[in-house]
Amino acid sequence: MKTLIRRLLPKLAAGLVMIWAVASFTFFLVHALPGNPGDAAYENYILAGMPPEQAQAKVASIYGFTSHDPLLAQYRGYIWRLLHGDLGQSISYSGVPVTHVLRAAAPWTIFPALAGLIIAFLVGTSGGALAAVKRSSRWGGVLSMSGSFFAGIPAFVLALVLAFLFHTEWNLLPYGDTSDVTLTPGFNGPYIASVIQHAVLPVATYALLAYGGWLLTMKSSVISVLGDDFILAAELRGLHPRTRMRYVSRNAILPMFTMFALSIGYLLGGSVLVENVFDYPGLGNVLFQAIGARDYPLMSGAFLLITVAIVLANIVADLLYTVIDPRVRR
Amino acid sequence: MTTLRVLTRRPGRVIGLLILLLFALMAVAGPSLYSGTLAVDPNAIYSSPSSQHWLGTDFAGSDVLQEIVVGARYVLETAALSALFTAVIGTAVGLVAGYHRGPADSALMRLTDFVLTIPGLPLLIVLSTIWSFGQPYEMAIALGVTGWGGVARAVRSQTLSLRERGFLEAARGLGLSSRHVIVRELLPNLAPFVAMNMLLAVIAFMGAEVALFFLGVVPFSSSNWGVMLNQAVFSGGAMDSPAALSYLLAPLVCILLITIGIVLFLDAVDELFNPRLRERP
Question: What is the ipTM of this complex?
Answer without folding.
Answer: 0.81
